[in-house]
Every structure is written in structure tokens, then in C-alpha cells.
Design brief:
five-stranded mixed β-sheet, 13 helices, two-stranded antiparallel ribbon, alpha/beta, elongated, disordered N terminus, Endoplasmic reticulum protein erp29, 3 domains, ERp29_C_sf, 347 residues, Glutaredoxin
Amino acid sequence: MRTTTTMALPRAALISLAALAAIQCAAAKKVECSEIKPGKLKSLAQDTHVLLKVDKKDTTGDDETQYENLCARYADSPTDRVKGLTIGNFVIDTDAMDNKDSKKAMDVAKKLGAEVESEWPTYILLKKGTQDASEGIKYGGEKTVEGVTNFVKEQVDVQVGSLIYYIDTLDKMAARWSSIDENGGMKAQLEKKFHAYVAKFMIFLYRGDAKEVAQMYGKVFSSVLEQGDGYVTKTKERLEGLIKSDSNMSKLKIEELSQRIYILEKFTDPVEVSAEDNRSYWFAILWNVALLGCMFFLVVGMLFSTEESTTEVAGDEKNEEVSSGDKKDSNESKDENEAGAETKKEQ
């Protein structure tokens, strides 16, 4: 299946976020990376999840650039989403190991399992409530922004960054929708309905954040089908107006509205495609429909299989009862014959 789920910031969403960045910083306390001292680590981990970058002092290079980008993404995150996560640098001054603080930092690094200098920077995650540094979870993937943020998402379900999702196949369906002439007669109306219903069914293929976004696409398809193409322009203008007029709107709310604006834009952007692109598009649609069909028949098959198993068990129990009854009758008959024989013998 060629359907992909990725993340990107559309132009309108980027402009909206940038326009209110300064105001939002003033309205709420901005999260940012900090240096975390060994003596503060345990108490900090009681209140929040803690992501540490264990590294030597004054580092440079690509790994440090990736960390700086991670901190920038963290600072740009909606505060309500990341308030339960602290990201910080755990510095070890390898040039002053005779120093008391450096020795203490290295001792903690050993407990964290991050004492090997050749592996630095080493990312360690301490979940909220962690009592001992040895319980930290070591990240073993590529030390990139995407790799580390995905690691945090998997471990503690916190999404770092202010991001807009897009679903490639649904974007293409929306663009195709907009290229269909609304006054094209019955054929055009049937084609639009086809795209709308397929989009609704495709929602069942997605999980997590992607499912929520897919549901947004489905709602727009339904609304446009009911209210016409004018719905897209009217709703988009209304949402953009809300962002511009409310200076106290949270980053999380701006992100939500920007996500909706991005999806609406796809319904106003007709596309011209080649014959090859057209074949690929319809293949993707048919593949998704076939996949949904397989899922449906699989569920139905499992239900019937369960019913048959229940029937078989009931039948086996009934046969056992009949068999038990026959055996009982046979034993009673045998007892009667033996009693008759004894009576005859006594006579």
C-alpha cells in the first residue's frame, strides 16, 4: 500500500503560527532545554518525564546541531502538550575529572548506563516517578531530531514539536475532488460521492494521530458533499479569522485550526495528472478498498467460526449426555438380568 502518513507545515499554517509566536510566548511560560545537574535529577524525575543528553562539555558538530534543533522543536511545542516533559543537557567535564562535581556526574552517568565517552552524546529517558538512575531507558537509534522525538513518543506518548499532519492518499483524493466540475451532471456527482465514501471507509485503516487526522478529512468530504464547494472557502476564511482575532489562543488550539485549514486547502487546489499518475492513483484507491474488503470478510469469518465452535461444543455435550444415558440403561439392564438369574438359582 503506497499510502503514507507524514508531517509538514503548510504555508498558511506557518504564517498563522509565526504571526502569533511572540504573543504566545508572553501569554504562557515557554518550555526550553536546560542543563540538568546530578543533584537535581532525582527530584526532577518525580514531577516530569526527563530526557537527558549525556555529553562532554563544549561539544560541537552534527550531533550538537541535532540537539539544538531538538531544543528548538521542544520550545516551539504547545505548552499544554509538553509540560510533562523536561529536556536537558547532562554535562560531564572530562578535562576536570579531579573536580568533585565532575566525579559525581560520572558516577550518575555510570548508573544511567551512559559512561562510555565514545558513545556520547547518549540520550537517556527517565519516566516520571523513576526512583533510581539505573531505571533510565537508553536510546539506541540514530541521534537525529526525528529519531529522538519518535523515541519519546513511543515511550511516554508525548509529541515534541508543533506539527501538521498530512495523509498522501487523502490529499490526492481531495485534489481530484476539486478538479471535478460541480455542474458536470450525474456522472460528476457520482464520482464525487465515490471519493467521499471511499475516504470515509479509509479512516478505519489508520491508528493513533493519523486516525484523528483521517477523520478530519472525512468530515470535510461529508460537509462539501452536503453543502457544496462553497463550504471550503467559507470555513477556511472563518478559521483564519479566528486565529488572527484571538491573541490569547493557545499554541495547541492554533495547531488544531491550522490542521483543519491545511486539509481545506487541499479541496481548493485542482491537479492535472498524467496517464501514469492516474493509473497509480486508481491502483492505490482500489488497493485500499480491497484491503477494507478483506478486513470485513476476516471479521465475518471469525464471527462464524466462533458460532460454529459453540455449536460443536453444544453438540459434543449432547452426544456425551446420550452416550452416558445409553451406558446407564445398559448397566441397569445388566443388573436386572443378574438379579433374575440369582432368583432363578434360589428357586
